[in-house]
Amino acid sequence: MGMLINLDGHIAPTASLSVLDRGFLYGDSVYEVVRTYQGRPFALQEHIDRLRRSAEYLYLEIPWFDHHICTEVKRTIAAAGKGDYYIRIVVSRGADQRISLLPDPQTRPRLLIILLPVDSNPQLSETGLSLEISQRERVSRNALDPAAKTGNYLNNILALLEAQRNGKDDALLLNSFGQITEATTSNLWIVRQGVIETPVTDVGILHGITRSVLLTILERLGLPHRQVVLKPEDLETATEAFLSSSVRLLMPIRELGTYGLPECPGPVTRQLWQELLRVMAHQDRDSLP
């Protein structure tokens, strides 16, 4: 089956929103992306928790209980049938009766769930990605905090378009202090001198669900790791690197700027890939060794 959409409980291959919907007009919405593995959505509750935090940041009240959102996600999966899916959960502030930056207090939020099929047998890429260090600065936490997963993604879109125009697959964005934040839709990890490093959240990143799972895996396995402030010059001593996200899971990196990684994918990336799939299969972080 192809795309399947659940809009406010109505499941169909297509759906329509008002042209006055604030998510359409202004990006005034929040969203989450969940992946199923072996037919079950992974870390669904964690995603819903983050959805609520993002909504709170936007002064947007989500009127549904967690149970209702979970039920609608599972109803949509059941309607799609067997297989694994990309699931996008969107809450828009809804449609106003007039066009104004200031939301109408009577506006009713909309719940949109989009399903697209994905490979049920994900494989770790053996070629990896080439990333550029973007000249486009990451939006400041004081302007629109990247920790809130909103529908406003123009900054990331422009960085990605510019990277691809330069022959790269993706981009790493720096904050105003020249510190590395993340790629356009994924968190960054590097391995230096046997230590696994990822940027601290304070530099301005999304608190990735997969990132959180990986930190738990690293802790349980006893692998040396740390959250640090990274500058572009730090990348030139990395032996391997990868991105993490709910859709990509782990994506090895072969090139950072002009620096070619010695190993792609490296042994740490391969080990974490296997552990992540095992955790996803068990759907239980407490099953980690």
From TrEMBL:
<dbReference type="InterPro" id="IPR036038">
    <property type="entry name" value="Aminotransferase-like"/>
</dbReference>
<dbReference type="Pfam" id="PF01063">
    <property type="entry name" value="Aminotran_4"/>
</dbReference>
<dbReference type="InterPro" id="IPR050571">
    <property type="entry name" value="Class-IV_PLP-Dep_Aminotrnsfr"/>
</dbReference>
<keyword id="KW-0032">Aminotransferase</keyword>
<keyword id="KW-0808">Transferase</keyword>
<comment type="similarity">
    <text>Belongs to the class-IV pyridoxal-phosphate-dependent aminotransferase family.</text>
</comment>
<dbReference type="InterPro" id="IPR043131">
    <property type="entry name" value="BCAT-like_N"/>
</dbReference>
<dbReference type="InterPro" id="IPR001544">
    <property type="entry name" value="Aminotrans_IV"/>
</dbReference>
<dbReference type="GO" id="GO:0008483">
    <property type="term" value="F:transaminase activity"/>
</dbReference>
<dbReference type="InterPro" id="IPR043132">
    <property type="entry name" value="BCAT-like_C"/>
</dbReference>
<protein>
    <submittedName>
        <fullName>Aminotransferase class IV</fullName>
    </submittedName>
</protein>
